[in-house]
Specification:
This protein folds into three domains: 114 residues, no CATH class; 58 residues, no CATH class; 81 residues, no CATH class. 42% of the residues lie in helices and 8% in strands. The chain is built from eleven helices and five strands. A three-stranded mixed β-sheet has the order 1-2-3. The chain has a two-stranded parallel ribbon with strand order 4-5.
Amino acid sequence: MLRKIIEAYDGALPDTVVPVFANTGKERNETLDFVEKCSSQWGVKVHWLEFSKRSGEKSERYQIVDYTTASRNGTPFAKLIESKKYAPNSMMRFCTEELKVNTIRHFVEQHLGWTTWKNVVGLRHDEGHRCLKAYARNAEGKSPWVTLCPMDKASATKRDVMAFWAAQNFDLGLKGYEGNCDMCFLKGRKILRVLEQENPGMAQWWIDQEATGVQFNKEETYQQLQKQAYDQPNLFDALQEDFDAECGLVCGGDE
């Protein structure tokens, strides 16, 4: 989406088009590398943001970072959990709202000084239900921004996106089941166990958070997931059953 917008402006974005990336601290390193490559190879400035706090002046609720200084140890996410005194879960996914949506909003209102704006997101045409939700929120008129989904309007699908990246000299470099947030609680239990097998210790941050008394999933803790990952050494073979025959991606998670 960003690349197509850059092309639409003949290779140079005007000051009124501001690409932003809100880092939670739990994005995989591949994701951070990818954002940096988009910026450097396409000659566009990406504003890196992180959550700081939920209250106080808007200027205090976020911080501007960059590729080098961005958190890679979950600090913004941990701050949010500490302030809320409980962890997000599938019923209350406040991590996205606080760490990304509100963080970007405070940056736009305080740093850019905008009171209304257009929020451009990369939802594809084959993510119709998510696009419809965005359009419905626009109709409600409760936010200072209007969400635009140009990928949807252009009828771009996953197949189009994959074809685009196949023609580039870099891409995200993640398997379909890995996702950007390393061990997001919205991923299936089987996928989380495989991720721990493939990346020993990846579950530790989540275990440490639950050690403070919070829990992301009522049915199973990350400590239990980690134990099961090493008790069942051939989980990846079982995971093959969950692969979609057409796209080769694991289906069933929100990542």
